[in-house]
Protein 1
Amino acid sequence: MKHLTKEQRYVIQVLLKRKEKKSVIAAEIEVSPSTITRELNRNGTKRSYNAEKAQIYANERKERFSYNRRFTEDVKKTVIQYMTKEQWSPEQIVGYCKKEGIKMVSTERIYQFIRKDKEQGGLLYKHLRHKLKHRKRSVTNNSTRIKGRVSIEDRPEKANNREEFGHFEMDLVVGKDNKGAILTLTERVSKHFMCRYLPHGKIAKYVSQAVIEELLPYKEHVRSITTDNGTEFADHKTIAKKLDTTVYFAHPYCSWEKGQIEYSNKLLRQYIPKKSIINHDNTLELKEIQRKINRRPRKNLGFEKPFELFYNFINQKIAFAS
């Protein structure tokens, strides 16, 4: 079970102030309604919910309960022994230790240890049946190959709370066999969606060029862009300079920190399903698809249409208030 992040807690706080239902809040941060109920019971009060305090309470609780699950030398020795002598998988090690009452960390924590060992020249990963080849999370960490990254932890609170227009999220949608790509962007307050075919694929300099061309007409309104750690965004400094903004990077493997663009990608997938070919001929209707997505009334916008909200903000016809 994944724990709520600080950003998600700020979203909960803002939506509670708007008196949104728990089901609406849950859908916004992509968790179950029961998760919202537990969060309010554990970290809220009868009268209010404060994201900052809730995060402190959660961290304190995590510290108390994780004391016996630290990656100690004894745990390390146990993992190495079972892997090198018996070729057990991390899942088998965790399952067996839990059954026998032996102190052990999580499966993912063991994989983190294996990845770090490989990065340092170790051979522990070779004792895994799949040699990490089938792990979705690569042995190497993309974030280490992107210089000058600015962490999402530094993103302004107004962006986290959706209290200010002009904060975007971006991603790529890729085609069959990882060939062909579409740049996707969304503004966090209006939920306005933009997309553009990338004829050169995921090459960083062409991705940055596409981002700049897409957002340049709105340059004065672009306050930040949040993305993941894919190397296709390695040219983020060019984007930041040309648009006079800041590009923030989510934590590795934390796609929910940019959940809005992930959801927007799903809307795009209604028209361009997974395993579809993405090339020039198959993306001729892309702008029409973008138009349709932006003209859909959204429940979490009070059934307003994203494109109307977006251009009202651009034309300064409305002022956003949380």
Protein 2
Amino acid sequence: MIPFIEDDFIESETSFRELGDLLKQEFGAPSVTTPLRHHHDFQNPGEAKDSTLLLMPAWDAGRDLGVKIVTVSPDNGKYNLPSIQGNYLYMDAHKGSVRAIFDAKALTAKRTAAVSAIAATFLAREDSDKLLVLGTGALARNLVLAHAEFQKLKKVYVWGRDLDKARKLVQSLTEIRDPKMEFLPFDMEAVSDFEKVLQQADIISTATLSESPLLKGDLLRPGQHLDLVGAYKKNMREADDRCIERSDVFLDTYQGGLKESGDIVIPLESGILSPSDVRADLFELCSGSHPGRVGEEEITLFKSVGHASEDLIAARYYFEIYERLQKNT
């Protein structure tokens, strides 16, 4: 029997510190081969927006391999379904047999949030203790928890287009009772107007599907760190041109970061940004070839679009936990 590892297992067994450290090791000394992902937009009759199919393969020769199959349907909220759905096929790279199938939702959210958290260790100020999150979905929740495990947070603001959803997210976070999350609780607040608290935040994480910029660069204060993880398509943006102009820009990878999201693609096309302006990617940060933040007043911007090696490392992490627990039962 091929085990199907569900989101509930991933939720209950996550240590962002452990997962983040494994991802940091891989970015610092890569062992995983990662072809360019397949990204296919397709018409969705009856909906106002196209849907997307993503295929993300990766392998560590002789050890393991995997491929994530994801669909993105932006209008799914009206059906009470997640906009992002998918599965991850985790395999033995030596014999080619399937080891496990994962529900990809939690796997993706956990590895994405962990990547943002390790990037912030290089790019946010060391005294950062206030976080503003834009978005109310599963990724927003994980961004709070991941950043909290790496930063000594004292205050978290949560904003969403639906204030009630922001309040529910805050409530769910305050109700967590997990001994692995010893950093909880801290002060959390749902806000109706994020611009009123924008300058108080040290780290600003965005996890939305916005097609027009939410963050205005003229409102930023020196020393802030922007963590942009939403806006996955070329016509989507979470930060305006002034954010790009005022920030030192970093990417998770050059391979995807320069091509996939409007936060980078649109400024590149308009001439606001050139590829040479990008300071470094996460491979360079984790390997020590770039120091990351170099000044207290510097505004840093990290754009993450995801990388298939992250999925493979995360799948390996959870599968090893699964195997260990199975042997002990």
Protein 3
Amino acid sequence: MAEPVLLPVEIWCQIFPYMDEASIRNSSAACRLFFEIVRGSEKYSGHVIFKQIDLSQLVIKIKSEEWTWQRWPCLKTLEIPIQLEYPAPTYTIGDALDPINLLKLEQCPSLDKISIFNCAFKLFYEDNIIARKLCFNPSNTTPNNVSYENVTYLEIIQFNDRNSNHLAQIGKLANQISRLSIHFESHI
């Protein structure tokens, strides 16, 4: 049987851009060389979105050392759901975000953005202003309360006159909002 021909890494780096996401994921499981190429590339491993595990499950994986940050040398952005199902609105953000402190983020110096989605945190103790997605820098401390500076998706349910003040604050402080949903109630 003939010896396999090993292509240089530079050639593989030219081949990977033609592969779809599933093929790249499968190839990184095929051999150590492909794993190192994929994980060492910011293009393929710089932005990770979890859809199958939530924040508490990631903490368990890190504690059991099933997940190690050393395998993600180019990770810049991590998006993770606070829980898999869509939660009911709540005021308690501190307890909900406590698991972030257990993620050992100091072991991933390249990480500069964490996005938490599937949230439902009420802002300003209003029942109708809800933060659905948060974003923060992991080198800073984990937020104990939600401010407009951390919100990237905000939902206002049943907009009313009291919310006009909040709209002014959103305009001044919310520099990360990429999605704003406002539901109006008709009084016909």
Protein 4
Amino acid sequence: MAALLAIAPGAAPARRSAEREGGHDPITTKVTFDREIRAILQTRCAGCHTAGGPAPMPLTTYEDVRPWARSIKDQVLTRRMPIWHAAHGYGAFANDPSLTPVEMAIFAAWVDGGLPRSPGNSTPAPISTPVVSAFRRNATPLSIPAVAATATVTLASPWIAAWDFEPGDPLVTSATFTSAGGAAIGTWVAGDAAVTLPAGAGLAVRSPVRVTVQRRNAADYEKPYTPTRSVLYVVPLTDAPARRVWLEQSACGAPRTRPNADLLAVRPLLAGGASARLWLERPGAPRAILGWFRDTDARYPRAYWLTRAADLPPESRVQSDTPCSVELTLASR
């Protein structure tokens, strides 16, 4: 689960109920924590729900998970968690962290079936912290002071091929990156994986790069945590890439006048709580659904990366059922 941030105040009663009733739950399912639930939590939740991670509570052991199990079930079945504002069935996105229908059914069966711990007499191991990726080992780390709302970092190269962000404060919900002069580079939202551009592509940057972070309020049940320095990881390019990537903002319905490009990602620029259905209109082509973005939250300015890049020729338009603007991540052809 990218982050169970929305559980906060309303979850406490559900937690107390689970603690009070859990010891008497009859076991009516073969689904167990050790055999099935650990794997789901590792894949969907461990990126945020670890000690010091950007979520209010760790979910790394059976003892961590059990008091919250019913709240987690409600959150995932109503798709409030993981935080993802694109409606399912409208567009396809490579960075969708949501549980699959099968995973949701397995988790619900486990909760409704009495929360069994492990098959037989085996003892479940704790859910491991995600392994440091090869990307981070090979990327250039740029340190950001603890608790700073904005900071600047210097890049030695004018091009980058990938980026990632590691917050040093669990209250950080997102970070945005802009070049000197204000050109947008990209965003990170709690739970996001590293962004890697298509092979041979690079995004131009001008130093110093400005990093702006947003934070949430601490939940009353969170343990105190001393923030450390955050890190922006980038993969620099020494030479100009074969394909250039850039970000472009436009009003919904406005025609593009620039050359043909591939659309890699879309970020709706909507007021908090707003919703919009977006689709592409292109000369000589049928309409193509981009996505339906609902109940957006400015604390999570996520870019939605398309599973498959879309052709965006001149005179193309991103249309919407409501007035809005969009930020498009584009790549030259």
